[in-house]
Write a structure and sequence with these properties.
544 residues, alpha+beta, 11-stranded antiparallel β-sheet, 10-stranded antiparallel β-sheet, 25 strands
Length: 544
Amino acid sequence: FFPRKSASDLNSSRRMTTHANGDSKMDIEKLTEALEVSLTLAELQAAAKGGKYNVVPIFTEMVADIDTPVTVYLKVGNCNGPKFLFESVAGGENIARYSFIGVKPYKVMEFGSENKCDPLRVIEKELKDIRLMPNRKLPDFTGGAVGYVGYDCVRFFEPTVQVPKEKALDIPDCIFSLYSTVVCIDRVNHTMKIIYNIPLYRLNDYEKAAEKGGKGVTVASLYEDAIREIDSVRARLEGPLPKHKLNKTASNGSKTQDMKDMKSNVGQKGYEGFVDTLKKHIKMGDIIQAVPSQRLQCQLVDVDAFDVYRQLRMINPSPYMFFMDYDSFQIVGASPELLVKCVNGVVTTHPIAGTRKRGITKEKDDALAKELLSNEKERAEHIMLVDLGRNDIGRVASPGTVKVDSLMHIERYSHVMHIVSHVSGKLDKSKTMYDAFRSVFPAGTVSGAPKVKAMQLVNRLEPQSRGIYSGAVGFFSFSGNMDTCIAIRTLAVKDGVAHLQAGGGIVFDSEPTPEYEETMNKMRALGKAIQSAQRMVRKRKNRA
């Protein structure tokens, strides 16, 4: 990184802020000048006086043509507490513009199986009164609620769907953390912004304390907090890359398992039995399609979850790549599928249905894509899920605004290709983005159609609750927008054990063995990432 001010200028300013007899006001002014932040104290005071906005983003910008999102995460994330890294490769092939890193949230909201309250209502309550000052120099996401909604949270949105009581993995059903500090990497301009969202609403929180003689919170003190936070993050970014520390959840051993040796919760015979049972219900007219799944697990040997993520982002670049660390467990994913997005009042979903392995050559790859698009079973299944997506969005969209923006195009990923469509609609004024999430969740591509009946049947078959698998990962931003993906091609790591899960759509013409093989193909990139991570760590050890 090459800061606009020299390192000696910044270090001098930092020393002044800690001098016992220094003038605090002068120190902050010096540090502000050295950091070249986007907002002056006078401008913040004017915003506070105007009263239109109660959250104001402030940032400093750095040249970022050397480090990567991984190294930035390692530098700023070298601390306890929840943290995340979000990256994206659009369509599996084109690098998206922004990557985001967040650490040290100011609030964490956890929801377990004992919770009876819809978690979205809690998140909405936290964010509903926030009025973010817009800034054209910033991306839409500058901070907000980041986390996941597990599949089992469907019980809050559809009470008739009861999930299995046995939990294979002891993690919360849902977690969202509120981040006011975010590092944004711009891959187009090769710059990086350290963004801090100044909470002017805290002025009201402390009015009573000030009236009673307490110190209270002032615009100046909030500004000082922002400058110190930005400076703290920048100091870490300018420092050396921390030495790799093996995560405490990793174990020592001889070899991480191959996929064929990983333990399945149902086995091939059990999964093929799911297919036969669901086909009977399809023939009886109970459902048109259903999506059962199986879970694999393996002990990680000598590697931790972030090692696996580093390999996964290379092996399987995807529209939604994420690493979320909650200290006692981690979530690693490279999802190809948008669940639901709401930006400036437009709601969007991208159904994916229809899968083939990638061809060895371009000619074979193109032939497989052509065969996939012409396969009657795959086309029928996909069209059904597009209609389901249209219905889901139609429940929250203004009449006449739902449309199919793109129908049945191929998107290619490292190990598989998919048929994908795009559906959108204009959010009705009587609805919120949280209503849109409830309407679409879970996606028809991981549940079935009719959705409720399919979920009820699948939940009777699967012996354990799904946890994060087929749920959602994403954010609700301070700007009032939402972006979430389906938690597929995702693994959870706890106590040194990696949990992988995948399913497939079962229709009238489905055959048990190919359907089982499809689930294994969908988990292959995750399995390969685990193996590659182990090789990487062994090479690191040998060099040491």
